[in-house]
Amino acid sequence: MHEDWSDERLMLAYRDGDAKAFESLYRRYRGALHRYLAHQCGNPAYAEELYQDIWIKVVNARADYEPLARFPTWLFRIAHHRLLDHYRKHAPEAALRYASGEAVNDCDTNFIARQPAPPHQTPHALHERHEMAQRIERALADLPAAQREAFLLAEEGGLSLAEIAATTASSRETCKSRLRYALSKLRHSLQDLL
Questions:
Q1: Which of 110, 117, 85 is nearest to 99 (CA)?
Q2: DSSP state of 143
Q3: Residue 84 neighbours by CB under 8 Å, 6+ apart
Q4: What digits encode the pLDDT tens for the residues 13-51?
Q5: How far apart, in whole angstroms, are the C-alpha atoms of residue 11 and residue 66?
Q6: Residue 47 CB: number of other CB atoms within 10 A?
């Protein structure tokens, strides 16, 4: 019943007491949100903790929710702020580097690469997937934090440039440049895979 509803309609229904609407939203965004967090902080324990905190914030904010922006913009803005809070708490110097767009190197960069492939794949396909995941993870980790975040918000969150700008409190042109540079660096790093 809820599967064809917009995210905003689901959140409004959840605000009005429809728990099934929340379940639908959770299913839609669990993969993208978790991947965003895993790529941003890398540490599986931190990513899981942040992931749970963000959904708790969604639950707690439901009574005040108004669809002033697309739901993914709202959700990933919560995630962005939660990441900043995490860095401020656990490593104040990392928070400053993260906020300024510098690389944050307290990450377990192999976390994504260690994720298991679907069991129906052949051993050869598993090996290829693992090699490709490691290459992509290294390429993402090599990006400056601000560029990586812009890329992940666009790819994982499905956010537009304006939404990325609103989420990160940056100008649209700054986000456009970050995304362009990220794509250029990723293409260059992964050109033999394309």
A1: 85
A2: S
A3: 95, 98, 99
A4: 999 999 999 999 999 999 899 999 988 887 788 889 999
A5: 9
A6: 24
Q: Which of 181 and 193 is assigned the larger pLDDT?
A: 181
Q: How far is CA 122 from CA 110, 119, 129, 142, in A?
A: 22, 8, 10, 30
Q: Is 45 left (phi over 0), alpha (psi -120 to 50) or beta?
A: alpha
The pTM of this model reads: 0.65
| DSSP single-letter state for residue 43 | -
* Cα–Cα distance measured from residue 57 to residue 116, given in angstroms and rounded to the nearest whole number: 29
How many CA atoms, within 13 angstroms, populate the side-chain half-sphere of residue 107?
24
- Residue-level pLDDT at 122: 57
Domain map of the chain by residue range?
A: 7-193
Rounded CA gap, 169 and 171, in Å? 7
Nearest to 174 by CA among 161, 158, 188: 161
Residue 101 gets the label, from left (phi > 0), alpha (psi -120 to 50) or beta, of left
pLDDT tier, 176 (very low <50, low <70, confident <90, very high otherwise): very high
* Residue 1, amino acid: M
Angle at 183 (CA atoms; ends 182, 185), nearest 5 degrees: 65
